[in-house]
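ERR on first pass: missing label on line 2. Operator R.T. fixed the label and resubmitted. Corrected input:
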Amino acid sequence: MYRRLIEFYKEGRISFKYVTTFNMDEYVGLPRDHPESYHYYMWNEFFKHVDIDPANAHVLDGNATDLVAECTRFEELIKQAGGVHLFIGGIGPDGHIAFNEPGSSLVSRTRVKTLAYDTLEANKRFFGNDISKVPRQALTVGVGTVMDAKEVMILITGVHKSLALAKAVEEGVNHMWTVSAFQQHPQTLFVCDEDATLELRVKTVKYFKALSDEHQKMIEDVPVEEQRVIH
Amino acid sequence: MKSKSGLTRLHNCYILRNSKIIKEDLWIRDDRIEDPEKVFYEEQLQADITVDCGGLLIAPGFIDIQINGGWGVDFSFDSDNVEEGIRKVSKELLTHGVTSFCPTMVTSDVEKYRKILPLIKQTDGGPHGATVLGVHLEGPFINLAKKGAHMEEYIRIPEKGIQTLTEVYGSLDNVVIVTIAPELPGATQAIRELTNLGIKVALGHSTASLAQGEEAVECGANLITHLFNAMLPFHHRDPGLVGLLASSTKRQVFYGIISDGIHTHPAALRIASRTNPDGLVLVSDAVAAQGLADGNYRIGPQLVTVEGVHAYVTGTKTLCGSTSALDTCVAKLKQSLDCSMEYALEAASLHPAKALSIDHRKGKLNYGYDADFVIINPDTLKIKSTWIAGECVYKCDQF
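pass 2 clean. output:
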């Protein structure tokens, strides 16, 4: 996604001059220039390639001396910016959104979060296969923080995330699959590939495919505010 | 393409960093290379100036630790207008991508040292010319049998170690390298004392055995002056100074190489580089004739004849320094070794910086380093512009 946005920027089709960004999470205690830090990732994969104003690019500081204050500050910044217009995120195979791991409160706000063992295990490949080097805590926006966004877009690709997609759309809202919370969000779009649909019922897939074209036509060139009432 | 102070981003370029050429922007501010990520997150600043480098390559500025003069100037001989000579050469060097150098004095009489040495001060570079890192004194404490182009009557023995050296040189304040023959009486003591003063000792113009060379290295010497030239040829029972390349001493030994295509055969270059890749330091060993047409010139008190790319002691076929600047040497080295571009460039930047123990601020394009660099065409190695301390100090008009 970032690569495409950079392409669009380089083609002169879009600019980030007036865009404000909030990154949803960051490891605690990881040096900012560590390749696994989101500061590092965002700088190298996106920020350095576009014209965003550094004062408008917000990333949680996992090295802040007072982590609680940092979380409060972040929520405050979002409020000052007028709230999040568009939240874009992926999910984990266990259906976590940001670092809201299974069991997270669905009304949670930005906070310090302990990471599930599965997450440490999955991430150790980025830390020399040494699980003791994987940070055990992270700062993350809460499910409630994301729910406040005007619009949500979730990108889901690959077979390994297909169960999470099924849990997100076919079953009820459940804090063990935090992505399912968006069933109660007024404006959420799930973007997925064929592989990610493997755990869905054939009926579900056919249903969404059948109405996709018509829906696209309806919302084309319509402002977000109006899209809310055209489903 | 000018900048000094202000936050400058050079983009659309490749840079040599951590021994790799990568597609990356180079950010500079004032006289240093900046970490743009840090600036972005901590200072939340954008670049004041953005320079489009047109897809060219940025490499650390070249460092020449052995250069006797050029453009008609002879550092060892012209004692009446020393500062003017240094100015002229340091200015001209910018056109060759050299951002720092060690003016080199060959064997001279005491009077010359006393007159010239105090006047070659360590000077920061800028639009006026390349940085003067300090003087390289090549001789007179060398072996008569390997005098090369040096004047016999001035050659001496460092009998009382550094005491003899100061009797000859006077103050050592402006000196960063002394080339010495380690087998001479008192040399070992001198090497130890020079090392204690933070002055680098180079071994050369010598008939030293490997054992003598190793002892010198143990005492602190870390350089070999123009490897293969003016030393015993490699012998399998006693490899001499050449053997230091593969010696069992733990310290890294650096060796100056004149890769002008004349002083060292390409095969010899390959032998050296494959044996001790990190130690290869490109030097120009350029003489006053560098940058001048064919004819007769001086090197020290001697006459030199330039014919094409060769510089001889007049009336003989004894080579006495080269007429190629360091940028040419980089191209020749790459051609002779068929090595990577990264290696050839580092042999003229990082390696000499390491040899002088200044690799914490020069010789790399890492964050916090001096913003001394060259923008070059990666195919031809032609220099587009030279930058010192964050300032564009030379720009090629016909690029």
